[in-house]
Amino acid sequence: LQEVVSEESEEESNGVNLMEFSDEILLHILSYVPCTDLVLNVRRTCRKLATLCLDKSLTHTVLLQKDYKVNKDKVKQLMRDIGKEIYQLNMAGCYWLPSSTIDHVTRCKNLVKLNLSGCHVTSLRLSKMLSTLQHLRSLAIDVNPGFDASQLSSECKATLSRVSELKQTLYTPSYGVVPCCTSLEKLLLYFEILDRSREGFMLSGQLMVGESNVPHYQNLRIFYARLAPGYVNQEVVRLYLAVLSDRTPENLHAFLISAPGSFAETGATKNLLDSMARNVRLDALQLPKAWINGSGLLQHLKFNNPFYFSFSRCTLSGGHLIQRVINGGKDLKSLTSLNLSGCVHCLAPESLFRKAEDDIDSSILESLVVSCCNLRHLNLSAAHHHSSESIGNHLCQLLSRLKHLLSLALPVCSITDVAASVEKPPTTPNLVPQTFGRKVRIGIQTYPRNLGDQANQKIESSVFWALMGSLRFLETLEIIGSSFSSAMPRNEPAIRNSLPPCVRAQSVGDSEVAAISQLTYLQSLTLAQLPNILTGSGLVNIGLQCQHLRTLSLANLGLMGKVVYMSALMDMLKHCKCLRDLRLEQPYFCAGAQFFQALSHCSSLQRLCIVSRSGTLQSDAVMSFMANCLEVIMCHMFMGESLTVCKNLQQSIVRSFQAERPALNVVIFPLLHEDLTEVIRDVPMRHLDEITLFKSRVAEEPPNLWW
Residues in domain F-box (predicted)? Predict the structure, then answer.
């Protein structure tokens, strides 16, 4: 924007002057500029912009959560200049700012919403800050080891007593500030407590001394808890739930617990669920699989106007889904988000004698589509959803009716044409990839350069091509192999062997990837375990056509013994000008000079993560890439290199670029090293959760759960 203003004379000579636009248009343009730039830079360019940059519409809400260039001095100056005008401040994930930065938030006397998740805040600093924020109604904080609620002043507790929305991320067993929040209507809890300390001692789920105060849930409307793996997290969340089991809030309309693995139901939780069935009507529901499997709970729960359901990893059958949840097609027009990830029998009438690989019952999916016609987010991943040969009843054909979809996650085996999967033999790992009518030299990958020829080969007649053509406004797409598991699971050593792909998925490859290029508004794409990728030619189509693509995650494409799509990937990257996050997981990946030269064309890239068993890297190429791509603030590489090579490169990057990039986070480490989990625990949660760890993110949480 400054460059535009500085070239004002040139614009005038061409008959166009930016300053002649109306204030409304200029305010709209300025709304896309980070607030720190507006206040600290742009407003100093001319008198008109000096006034507009301080307009209430631009200073009311300040978002710093992904402003990776902001530092302590900029925050201090920003708060000094417009602190009194800020009503909503989001500093989530600003892990690089020193804890003393929080002291400047006290200038924002009129704050109503404050998000400090991922920031370093001690209990004393929190007390001092909250004592001055009398209008605060929404708060998000982390509770770290050493937090002491007894250090909170009476003024601080008075502020907390007026807070109605609280998001709390726990890294230690604690109630945090929950007992002080006596007016809570929305409570979001993220449990990230590790089972072992850094010294190797087992941790207990018992709360610290002095934390016997109980939470106040009488006004609660939304309860959400997300647990990281580990038994300590389960122990602590039970303490939070104990109060709910005694007396269920009358106004509760959203109850959500996301727990990986086994989280057994107890007498207290059963009492809670029975009370909910008697006393409340829900709009959103998510429960651990053990609480739903084999129980008649869903038959007794009552729903009002549900907007979110998650039955992830449950053994819920399609018959129960239709009868007990969808209620025969009634009252489900309000549902906008549905997560059936890992729900292997959800599209079958019953699960007792059914194999996971059996064909789905298309009538169940059709009932789902008709009843939930306003779905915007749908997750069907981590299951075998095989369509039968019945004409017009393919899963892709039925899903094409959901015209409002914005995000979609599907298993690879669900998108293949039935005839193709039967006729085409499985790809054999020992074979050299072949193309039609052309010999291929080993070691040199070729792919169709003519996009029209590529399209006419197969894809225009496929059901997946038709599905992509019907979902023109889709922004997020995940195509993930039903047996895929990342080499980097949470809190465990790296996985050394992966399961083979589903037989039905063997025919899914380049042509299906090319079909995705029809999604003009695509912003996030995940492709994992597509076995029939021969050249990766479809990636080039996506790079050319999907110009809004910001997040790209590719994992285990084609043969596992070599990276067959490298040439196409490098061509693709040259066109991805808006790409910000790139995650690659592929054995034997060579991160060399050619790859990083191609990646340097991604001028907007901010975060890079490469996970590769037996993969190699070229240190000089990495350093050159970091020097050329000035926006990159995260570089995570887990390869097959030695510990010495990894440490030397990591130190070189930090030493060379940390001063200019305050948010820089670099982790370069051998993938199969025994200390990998210790290294992972130091990664900022924002990066770990959003890119470093692989997972399906479609309908993972209710939409707009937090601002």
Answer: 15-62
